[in-house]
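Predict the 3D structure for this chain.
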Amino acid sequence: MVTVRASMIWPGPQTDVLKVFVEPTPDDWGTEVYDGDIVIFRALDSRGEPTGEIAGLEIVGFLDFNRWEDLPKLDILWQLPGQKPLPLDELLRREQRRWRAQAREVA
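Done. Predicted structure below.
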């Protein structure tokens, strides 16, 4: 399984859209609606066509997201800075627990 360095952007519960990017993120990438509130970012070739290379993903409504089985099946381990590489679903579940706790503290 390939390990990629990753970064995450989650602006908070008001917006509640999580974005995860492969680092370094390809210069040119586009979106592909994968399954409703799950969007895949794919690298684009010189003609603007998707290459199949994953650039990241987005989940709308991340704090309440529970459709883990609907995530794309990717043969990738994602590694955030200073943390061990994890499969996508494990990484996202861990971050969701952390951000749910943070949102409760703010409320």
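The mean pLDDT is 93.
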